[in-house]
Structure formats: structure tokens, C-alpha cells
User: What shape does this take?
Amino acid sequence: MNELPNKRVFITGGASGISGATVRLLLQEGARVCSMSRSDAWPDDIRQQASFLSVKGDVRNEADVQAAFAQCLAAFGGVDVLINNAGVGIPTPDIATAGLAAYEQMMDTNMKGLFLCSREAIKIMKENGSGHVINLVSMAGQRTNANAPLYCASKFGARGLSSGLADQVLKLGIKVTDVNPGPVDSDYWGDRKVPREKFLKVEDVARVILFILNQPGYMLIREMNFDNMNFLAG
Assistant: This one.
């Protein structure tokens, strides 16, 4: 089953990582994709496709978000799917020395950005009587981590916001799904000494998103939790 041809998808996040893998897969499946990110580093094979639009902007900035959705509407005529993927994580293993800037950056991106983009998408979806919001929350929104309590706080908050939104818009014909991967092998980790060989791949997450979007219109998946078994086994 392929529900994606001509679906209009708005996704946040840059050309690398989960968003890059997801955009590539969605375009292969026939979707029209608008990407919003602070960089514009998409490879030519993606950028040159008529069904792809890249918009520069910061999800933390209300004016940027509104302008990005306006450009998407002008290009594709609507938004059927929003994928809130943009996120940031900063380790704070010692709360006594954690900086306020780190806290604000994570809260503004992981929660405020989710709110601003969801608000604009819901405005459009309400008029259509249908739509799907997919939030990349992560398992950090369900289990805490002593090395990243502020990141977990932002993700617990994002999960609460997403769950409440799901309850609010269900009767409007709009679905909301949390995608909760465990650790993913991406640039997020930088040079930190972590067992990336035991992490999920960005393509794994992209395939889960595709699976969710390809379910029949009447089917609602509220949460999708998944991990690499080798990581869980230690």
C-alpha cells in the first residue's frame, strides 16, 4: 500500500540525519516535500526535483515558521503531513554547572518549535478536515538519563504537548503520532564516546515514518517505540 503519491509533507530539520533520510524516502514514494531548516545544504539530486522545496528558517522563530508555511502553500497548495523533526540535545551531566543557554536552546527548539510548526499546520489541516502530525519525540521522552536531564525534560514536555494535541484534534480528522526511537547513529553525537555501532540508523527511523504514513486513513497510531536490540542487551 502506498498512500504517499502527491501528499504534501512539511518537515523540519536539515539535509543530514533523520530528516535527510526521510526526505529522500518520501520523494522516492511520490510525496511532495517542503523542508525547513537553518541550513540549505541539500545535495543537487534532491534540490533539483520539482517535488522538493527547501526553505531556510529557524523553528524557534515565529515569523520564520509562518513564512515557511506560506511558501509551502504557494508551492504545493496545502499541507497534508507535518513531521516535526528539528531538535537539539546538549549533555548536562552536572546540573550544578549547566548553563542557562543550553536549557533555553533545548526548550526553544524541542518544545517551542514543535508548538509553532504544529499551530501553523493545524490551521491548514482544519480547513481540509484531515491531516497527520508526526512528532519525533524519542525514547528520552519516556526514560530519563542522568547525563542529559534537561534534554529529557524537553522531550517529556514534547510528549505531553503531542499527546494533548492528539486528543484535541482527533474529532477534526487530524492524526498525531509520536515516533520514539532509541539512540540513533547521527551527527548529534559528535565526538562523544558512545557505542554508535549499536544504535539505530537514520534510515531505520525513516522507514518507520513511511510505515506510519502508509496506513489506511482510519488507522491511528498514537506512539511508535523502537530500539536497537543490541543496544538494549548492553
User: Anything to note?
Assistant: Residues 68 and 186 are 26 Å apart (CA to CA).
